[in-house]
Specification:
7-stranded mixed sheet, Aspartate Aminotransferase, domain 2, 2 domains, 3-stranded antiparallel sheet, 381 residues, alpha/beta, binds pyridoxal-5'-phosphate, Aspartate Aminotransferase, domain 1
Length: 381
Amino acid sequence: MRIYLDHNATAPLRPEVHAALLDFLGPPANPSSAHREGARARAGLETARAEVASLVGGVPAEIVFTSGATEANNLALRGALAAAGPGAGLVTSAVEHASVLETARALAADGRPLTIVPVDAEGRVAARDVIAAIAPATRLVTLGLANGEVGAVAPVAEVAAALRGRGILLHTDAVQAAGRLPLDVSALGVDLLSLSAHKLGGPGGVGALWVRRGVRLRSELTGGPQERQLRAGTENVAAIVGFGVAARLARSEQLEAGARMSALVERLWMGLRARLPDVMRNGPAAPPRLPNTLNVSVPGCTGESLMVLLDLAGVAVSVGSACVAGAAEPSHVLRAMGRDSEAARAGLRLSLGPTTSTADVERVLDVLPELVAQVRRGAAA
Ligand SMILES: Cc1ncc(COP(=O)(O)O)c(C=O)c1O
């Protein structure tokens, strides 16, 4: 039996989602069609819209379904700045997901003012630094709610309070927070929020942008009037229905799953510390942080070498960084936290899910110390 500890990359499809998907794969399902088949698709789509809205404490009319969080982030950043007009700029942080950071850089290359705010050694961005980075041209601030590599949580509500009444939109990428931390758009005070289904046990290739009523965005796609004219193209109804089921389960289980995963992460961390005295934890030393994420560095071992050996031993984990042409790039998150490129290559990310068991954690604790010894022997040889 394989052990899967890479839920921040993607989660296994939940059985309830699988069943719901099958229900909508096969029959014709164009929600824009006027006949009975169209009405069934429309009903499925609208049920899912209500479930996804509930997950974030919003209303259904504020949900725009997209092909995933990458598209939702692009729509938020590009759409908000296009609607704000030429010269409108943005502020973000150095530890954002590539779909935010690369989009922000592309907008800057097109002449839009961009400030990238640094983070501290634990991966946290400070609200005062974000607020200080705001320039007269700033029309959008975008901050990931929880970092998928090290688990740091951004002070989104504090930034929202400072932005109130200044005509600056606040977007948050809540992909890694959804289902793991309480999520409420009113408490956060945001205007735009991105989600992805596949991190919640839904299918890949579907996500959503929550858009506060009254917020103006320019659509990135030209075509039909779907999704309140914000996302042209026939909706992927089966995937969206599956997303709705995953969102409902994530909302109802978040508190219990969060507490359980947090306890298992602590067990894993304490166990590793007992067996490998020089292991270091990357990320916040205390909450607020993601309850399911443990990022560690073991001196003398690259994250990649341990990841490969764990994979052979039946445990799937990640280094939390992109592999380019077979060579692991140092993590931009660990680099932003002040690690040099060698230390940034040492990070190993274990991310748990609602199905992770105590036995899974014990198995990792059994195998990892021997794999560390193996890497160190190899390095010494
Ligand atoms: C924080 C964050 N934002 C955005 C994305 C992109 O999501 P999707 O795969 O749905 O495009 C991911 C997924 O890796 C993510 O972790």
